[in-house]
Amino acid sequence: MKAPPPSSPAIDPNNHEGPFIIETQGLSKSFGSQRSLNEVTLQVPPGTIGLLGPNGAGKSTLIKCLLNLEKASAGSAKVLGVDIRTSNRASRQRIGYSPEQDSHVSNMVGCEYVTYAGQLSGMPFHIARQRAHEILDLVGMGQERYRKVDTYSTGMRQRVKLAQALVHDPDLVFLDEPTNGLDPVGREHILRLIGALRKELGTSVVMSSHLLRDIERVCDQVIIIGNGRLIEHASLAELKNRHQRIIELTPSSQAERFYSTITEAGRNVVRLSNGKLRVDSDADSIEWILELMQTHRLPPAEIVLNPDALHEMFVKTIAAADGKHS
Amino acid sequence: MENILDLSRWRECPRGLLYRIWVIARNGLQFELRTRLFRWLLAASWFWGVSIAVLCLLFNQSFTTDSWLQNLGTHFGPRIGAALTASKAIVLLFPDVWIGGFFTLILRAHSVLALLFSLVALTALVPRLITRDRASNALTLYLSRPLTSMDYLLGKFGVIVGILGLLWSAPLVLGWILSMAFAPDRDFVAYSLPPLLRALTFNAIALVSISCLALGVSACSRSSRNAVLLWVGLWMILGTVANSPKTPTLLRLSSFSYDLTEVRTGLFQTESVLRAVADIPLLPSEVVEKLNQSAKRSDAPNFKNALCALALMCVVSSVAFFRKLRAE
After folding, report:
1. Residue A325 buriedness (CB in 10 A; 0-12 / 13-18 / 19+)
2. Is the pLDDT higher at B296 or at A257?
3. End-to-end C-alpha distance for chain A, whole angstroms
């Protein structure tokens, strides 16, 4: 049986009425006196969700608590509608997890390892083996699959970790820093794959990453965590709408003419140290600047709308949260 | 956009918990079977199992009318022939003592050797149980699946059961079945069954206690070398100290190899076998005295304490195991 046709429009988390893939109520986790998660209450609809936060914010702890790898100190949580406390095993039946750190069984070759992971989720051997080879093809593992995992490079280990998380065809996958250690081609490949999981298979993805561009590229929702608290949960589109619209211009020549023309048009322009121009915009469109360039016969320029919008939004949100809780 | 995920879907009902535990156990066993040391041990223990069958067959044939052994005896002259006939008569007069005694000694000897083979095999296996899973963060792989740490424990326990089953229980039972297949009458089955049951009971006690200890030791370290050193220290060094008669009882009981020796002695009740043989009339008084002396030496004064010590070790090992067993 092949994958179903795409049918997964982006969902606005604030206007969604269920079912939710993750529901938490006052979820807290303490390690001694330190509180890693502080009463996190969430309702996450299906989609591709980016989990953001500075180092030590509690992203990995949240994922581990949802998987019952760490026992929550307080609060409750449901994953795919199953309570993680009352139905410990069942809550992980249709979940995949690719941890941040290396995780493999020593002395196993790649395809054996992925097959074994499938069997541990209850797949019969022959189906697990077939799926293992298909998934290893998808993540871009060639003949390396017949080598021991202990001998793999960082990039290969990332791929095989992703493969073991997907082998049992889960409904929800937690990916903790899935592009760490990948070369640009490998990163591109894996990001395409992650993006396609929701669109083509209907598999929801929760992806924790420090690389905001990766999140921006594949995710439709963002959860921001800081100091163990939930700071923000919104769709990426909504976050961008809240952000001040900016256009970044890289003129091929005549940068001064660009500057004066845009300033005369009544826009606020800032010269950046790298020669680029940063222009305030009032719409999510670059039509007006194209018209301006045509009218004044300006030379071609590279135009980027809302560059690093997520990054700025992230930094502002974290700063605001720090100010609020300090 | 073209579909990039061209793969089969799996929407069947997943197999149950027992299957997943079985997968862990089978995988561990497969790895063990690939090692040369284990293959050698397997060959040696099965050779010993077949040897039991051969020895018992020789014993059985000694008491069969017109058996080849008796016929062979007559070839060495009338004296040997008469001795064989006389011994046959004694056995037929006291079948419980002779058959039960013979099997007790044979199966006890088997348990000594099988325990040694199992401990050697476990020395190589201990790092592969949990230590390496901890070192390579494989616990995350297990515990992020629909498995709990108890399921993981049962899977690893299954590996040890498989190892000890192949090295110990299976050759023992097979040897007994083969020897009974050629038994001249049902007395042999009836009188050899109690020693077999005692051997299997000891096998089960050793299996549970050694498994718990091996799992506990394996969980305590993230380095294979440390795990092996700890295991060898508990087995050999503490065992050697405990064997010294001057060692205080409490210290002796802290050695699992001493405890297992005590339990084996207590279970097989060799002293009752020797006393029963000594009670047989017509035996020379020197032989009777020596048998009685041996019976005194075969006593297990710390049998119950040894059982309690083993139980305590199981509890401590389980606590160590569950404290260390968490995804990192």
Report:
1. exposed
2. A257
3. 55
Q: Quote the CA–CA distance of A210 and B120 in Å, as a whole number.
A: 48
Note the pLDDT tens digit of each residue in A33-42. Answer: 888 898 999 9
Q: Are A104 and B132 in contact (CB under 8 A)?
A: no
Q: Chain B residues with CB inside 8 Å of A97's CB?
A: 140, 144
The partner residue sitting opposite A88, judged by closest CB among B7, B19, B148, is B148
Q: Chain A partners of B8 at a C-beta cutoff of 8 Å? A: 1-2, 130-131, 134
| Residue B217 reports pLDDT greater than 50 | yes
d(CA A88, CA A68): 7
Mean pLDDT of chain B: 85
**Residues within 8 A of B (CB atoms), A 196-235 only:** 196-197, 199-201
Query: What token pair was written down for B86?
Result: 């006389």
Distances (CA, A) of B44 to A163, B40, B47, B52, B178: 42, 6, 5, 13, 18
The distance of B133 to chain A (nearest Cα, Å) reads 6
- pLDDT tens for each residue of A259-279: 889 888 888 888 888 888 888
Q: Are strands A277-280 and A229-235 parallel, antiparallel or unpaired?
A: unpaired
Residue B324 distance to chain A (closest CA, Å)? 13
Q: Which residue has the higher pLDDT, B324 or B152?
A: B152
Buried b (16+ CB within 10 A) or exposed e, B193-230: eebbebbbebbebbbbbbbbbbbbbbbbbbebeebbeb
ipTM score for this prediction: 0.80
What is this structure's pTM?
0.81
Interfacial residues of B (vs A; Cβ cutoff 8 Å) = 1, 3-12, 14-17, 19-20, 23-24, 27, 31, 128, 132-133, 135-138, 140-148, 151, 326-328
Beta carbons of A119 and B147 less than 8 Å apart: no
pLDDT single digits (tens) A296-314: 888 888 888 777 767 777 7
Continuous segment of H or E residues that includes residue A110: helix A110-120
Q: Cα(B51)–Cα(A147) distance, rounded to whole angstroms?
A: 42
If DSSP codes are grouped into helix, strand and coil, which group holds residue A108? Answer: coil
